[in-house]
Specification:
The chain has about 250 residues and is mainly alpha-helical. Helices cover about 75% and strands about 0% of the residues. The longest helix has about 30 residues.
Length: about 250
């Protein structure tokens, strides 16, 4: 018996395990930082995503029962209307009366068809709304991650800080690790969003997931530019100043 392909779909448990490992790595490198707390929230979101995506994909039996009941009642009503129209049309009726009856019946068929289509799409629209509400949380946490890396600027490694400057007490190696953790968190957030696209092939949901993936990719690209700059500064011949030199208060200012 052939087994299902293992590496053609995302496994929510493996994505969750990767995020949990990332939390431990951040805690070991930067204990007590806000970035670790954000990653813990991402763990909770991953657990909720695994449950939500599975629930959204599950058929809503009660809703389907009422949908089929409405469709059956609508078809029965159409048949009844058609019988009334054709049974009331006699052979000696004039042409105008016959055409008027056919036109009225056609309008009824169009209206009933539109109503049946609306009823039949209730489950799909309900699932779409649930998925879009869940995907909105991913946009929020993506911007929170971006806020944590926003002040981690490698150009400030050799700058003299003022009293209002943000805390940049990281060494070049620590700065690279911090930025790398932010990039990993963005990538894993996009993978969580992709779980909804796998479970629900709705075009609106797929487009929304694509927008989230493009957003995380663009932010990761900017982060890796910072990493490249930091590494180039670290490998230059002139050594980078120490943290004490960086945070030495200006004399005349």
């Amino acid at each position: 018996m052939a087994t299902a392909p293992k590496y053609r779909t995302l496994d929510p448990s493996l994505v969750l395990a990767s995020i949990e490992q990332l939390v431990r790595r951040i805690d070991e490198r930067f204990p007590g930082t806000g970035l670790a707390n954000v990653c813990r929230d991402l763990v909770e979101l991953a657990k909720e995503t695994a449950v939500r995506a599975r629930d959204i994909n599950r058929p809503h039996l009660l809703l389907r029962f009422f949908i089929w009941l409405a469709i059956t009642a609508g078809l029965a009503l159409l048949v009844a209307v058609a019988r009334i129209i054709f049974s009331g049309t006699k052979a000696n009726d004039d042409l105008f009366g016959t055409l008027q009856g056919i036109d009225s019946g056609f309008n009824i068929v169009v209206l009933m068809g539109a109503s049946l289509f609306f009823v039949s799409s209730l489950e799909a629209r309900w699932k779409q709304r649930r998925a879009l509400n869940a995907l909105h949380e991913f946009r929020s946490i993506i911007h929170v991650i971006d806020m944590h890396q926003l002040t981690k600027d490698p150009s400030m490694l050799s700058a003299v800080h003022t009293s209002s400057s943000p805390d940049r007490s990281l060494s070049p190696f620590e700065l690279v690790r911090y930025l790398d953790y932010c990039s990993e968190m963005l990538s894993l957030t996009a993978k969580l969003a992709a779980l909804y696209a796998e479970q629900l092939s709705d075009p609106v949901v797929v487009d929304t997931v694509g927008d989230i993936e493009r957003l995380t990719s663009n932010l990761s690209g900017m982060i890796w530019q910072k990493i490249a700059i930091t590494q180039s500064l670290e490998s230059r011949d002139m050594p980078l100043p120490s943290m004490g030199q960086i945070y030495r208060s200006p004399g005349a200012e």
